[in-house]
Specification:
The complex is a heterotrimer of chains A (214), B (218) and C (267). Chain A is mainly α. In chain A, helix 1 runs antiparallel to helix 2, helix 3 packs across helix 4 and helix 4 crosses helix 6. Chain A has 8 helices and no strands. The N and C termini of chain A lie far apart (52 Å). By secondary structure, chain B is mainly α. The termini of chain B are far apart. Chain C has 267 residues and is α/β, with parallel strands linked by helices. Chain C is built from 9 helices and 12 strands. Chain C has a 6-stranded mixed beta sheet with strand order 8-9-10-3-11-12, with helices on both faces. Chain C has a 4-stranded antiparallel beta sheet with strand order 2-1-4-5. The longest helix of chain C has 16 residues. Classes of the chains: A mainly alpha (214), B mainly alpha (218), C alpha/beta (267). Chains B and C meet through helix 5 and helix 6 of B and helix 2, strand 8 and helix 3 of C.
Chain lengths: 214, 218, 267
């Protein structure tokens, strides 16, 4: 056990990387999800179909495959970006597809009557969205949004496979050196547990606030 | 950059060597997860607080840690203990441990969706609680759980790609092997993506068929 | 409905000083009443008066802390042990009791995954162990009796509320119960569908079924009840014949309750 203590700061850097990847990917996923949800709800039919096909494809492919594709294709593409940025882009877009579903379902879950009530007092669609529907949709979306962001955090662990120094990658390196898989991977698991459980607690808090509406 | 269709097609045939391994992992993982979820949901619904707490803890731990870390834990841990297990077994174990927990949640929600009114309607006829569950609740719960189970199955199929990192020669592993040797990476990963999309689509369609069949039967 | 004969039917259901608490809130306060064999007793009262709770205590769908309920002289739901302690009866005994006391719910609660005929014949097959043909015969007869002979193969979802409720009544009748409990069975129905269900219940009263009916349908109570029980705030305030209750109410709470119904929407 004591032989592991010197490795702790090293692990700590991995934790920072994981936190960075998680936050950035979640932010990107939220943005992508919002855009795709808007397209699915409001755009012209051909654009909607294109978006739905894209979403179906994204959800049918493993994240690892996309990460590998980026990893191998990047040198050929002529772009020079940090591996971590590339990882964030892939993870962000991938989970953006899931976020799109969260936002779309939340928007549809706002009762029809709300739209009609707004129309009845003379509001037009954009105003209805902003004043009436948005807050309600956000309240409905909060719990599944948190769940999806937990999935993002767990998804960042895959960058370890393409050599990015997140907490999983560093954990594996430490294990190879110190041969203490249970302690090290246990610690790695603990890190994710704390982050994800923290998020889900936030989610449960959000859920009680969400029920305030009804 | 041009896209070599011919090579893409040849990649398909090379990758299909990994297909059997992917299926050999996915099918048992799906079946065992569906089975493992049952004792878990029974434990959760039992009134014994100790059992409930234990199961809840297990579910929370497994849901809040990445499958990859669980796989590493089992794979490297087993080697350390002196009983090394193959990547395949470690992967299968980790997949079932993870997804069994999610499946238990799905079962729980499905059962709960069959309201207490239905249970009461069965009880007042004179059925025992166990009979009511079997005759009234379970058939309805079964219909309710098929869609979320279908989603979970898709997730399992996709997660089989992770065992490539612990040396299991399934689809993704084969693709990576190929990509290390050639420059036609677009074609290779295009073919790989195609495989997974086809697999998940076929699985989803099968589950839809099951759903329809259940709806019709009485 | 007998009047001058000296034959008084035996008590089928006896509720003896039943009290129930929900936490600190007492929802039933020493409620006592009886239902004789062949009698149709209607329970009326404002919402929250405990009428539905009382009904559900009779067939042990709800627990209660004090008091005794018996069916044909036998204690049901709880037994008093030698040392005076109450103990809930084993599930098997409670299930056997429920097979003898039919219940119809406000929300019908038909089994959506079974046809109408199967809903009705399920109990006789599985609990009375009749063979399928015999059970289905009984089922068809009962469905005919409630006016749904045509719909034996329909699914509940294909029927209107009134039709579903009549199926629910047939389902309860199929068990050949000693007594039947009706929990506001028309409250969830559209007004134009209420009549068809009340018709079936009227027929049951005239056929001599022992019934305890919780309802808001005052006209039905007035016309067909043999006894009326008025409950408010968890206790039995007044009970008597329909004439006594509706024409000459004694308690102030009952008078106020009836006044609300008489006023209706008149200005």
């Amino acid at each position: 056990m004591d032989s592991l203590i010197p490795s702790l700061p090293y692990l700590g850097r991995g934790v920072l990387m994981t936190l960075y990847l998680s936050a950035a990917s979640t932010a990107l996923a939220t943005f992508v999800g919002l855009v795709l949800a808007m397209i699915q709800l409001f755009a012209w039919r051909p654009v909607r179909w294109a978006a739905e096909i894209l979403l179906y494809l994204l959800r049918g492919v493993p994240l690892l495959v996309l990460l590998f594709a980026m990893y191998y294709a990047l040198p050929y593409s002529g772009f020079r970006i940090e591996p971590s940025t590339g990882g964030i882009m892939v993870i962000g877009v991938y989970f953006g597809a899931f976020m799109a579903e969260v936002f779309r379902a939340a928007a549809l879950a706002v009762p029809r009557g709300q739209w009609e009530a707004g129309r009845a007092i003379g509001m037009r669609t954009p105003r209805i969205i902003v004043d009436v529907v948005l807050m309600q949709a956000l309240r409905i979306a909060a719990p599944p949004y948190i769940n999806t962001s937990i999935m993002v955090v767990k998804g960042t662990s895959l960058v370890a496979i393409i050599g990015l120094a997140d907490v999983t990658f560093i954990g594996r390196q430490i294990v190879e050196r110190t041969l203490a898989p249970f302690e090290v991977f246990g610690a790695v698991a603990l890190v994710y547990l704390l982050i994800c459980y923290g998020l889900s607690t936030l989610g449960r808090y959000a859920e009680t606030k969400a029920n305030y509406v009804h | 950059m041009s896209f070599d269709i011919g090579f893409a097609l040849r990649s398909v045939s090379i990758l299909s060597e990994g297909l059997t391994m992917t299926l050999a992992l996915a099918v048992p993982a799906i079946l065992f997860s569906a089975v493992w979820g049952v004792p878990l949901v029974v434990a959760i619904r039992s009134r014994r607080s100790g059992l409930v707490a234990l199961t809840r803890t297990y579910i929370e731990i497994v849901r809040n840690t990445p499958v990859l870390v669980q796989m590493f834990f089992i794979y490297f841990g087993s080697g350390f203990m002196g009983y090394p297990i193959s990547g395949f077994v470690a992967g299968l174990f980790a997949l079932v441990l993870q997804n069994g927990a999610y499946v238990a949640e799905i079962y729980r929600a499905g059962i709960q969706s069959v309201t207490s009114r239905q249970t009461e309607a069965g009880l007042v006829l004179g059925f025992m609680p166990g009979e009511v569950f079997r005759i009234v609740v379970m058939p309805q719960a079964l219909r309710a759980v098929i869609p979320p189970l279908s989603n979970q199955g898709v997730l399992i199929i996709k997660d089989t790609s992770l065992v490539a990192t612990i040396s299991v020669a399934e689809l993704t592993f084969q693709a990576r092997l190929l990509a290390d040797r050639t420059a036609a990476v677009f074609e290779i990963f295009f073919a790989l993506a195609l495989f997974y999309i086809v697999l998940t689509t076929i699985f989803s369609l099968l589950m839809r068929l099951l759903e329809v069949r259940l709806r019709v039967s009485n | 409905m007998s009047t001058e004969t000296s034959f008084i039917p035996p008590v089928e259901i006896e509720v003896c000083s039943v009290s129930k608490w929900f936490g600190a809130n007492q929802v039933l306060k020493q409620v006592s009443t009886t239902v004789r064999r062949g009698e149709a007793v209607v329970v009326i009262g404002p919402s929250g008066s405990g009428k539905t709770t009382l009904l559900r205590c009779i067939n042990a769908l709800e627990e209660y802390q004090e008091g005794e309920i018996s069916l044909a002289g036998n204690a049901i739901g709880y037994t008093i042990e030698a040392n005076g302690r109450r103990r809930r009866q084993p599930e098997r005994e409670i299930a056997a009791m429920r097979a003898q006391v039919g219940m119809v719910f406000q929300n019908f609660n038909l089994f959506p995954h079974m046809s109408v005929l199967r809903n009705v014949s399920l109990g006789p097959i599985r609990i009375r162990h009749k063979d399928r043909e015999a059970a289905e015969d009984i089922g068809r007869q009962l469905l005919d009796r409630v006016g749904l002979g045509q719909k034996v193969d329909a699914l509940p979802g294909q029927l209107s509320g009134g039709q579903q409720q009549r199926v629910a009544i047939a389902r309860a009748l199929a068990m050949e119960p000693k007594a039947m409990l009706f929990d506001e069975v028309t409250s969830a129905l559209d007004p134009e569908l209420v009549g068809e269900v009340l018709d079936v219940m009227r027929q049951l009263v005239q056929d001599g079924m022992t019934m305890m009916i919780v309802t808001h349908e005052m006209a039905f109570a007035r016309a067909f009840a043999e006894r009326v029980v008025f409950m408010a705030d968890g206790e039995v305030v007044e009970q008597g014949s329909p004439e006594e209750i509706f024409e000459a109410p004694k308690a102030a709470r009952l008078q106020a309750f009836l006044k609300r119904f008489q006023q209706g929407y008149r200005l």
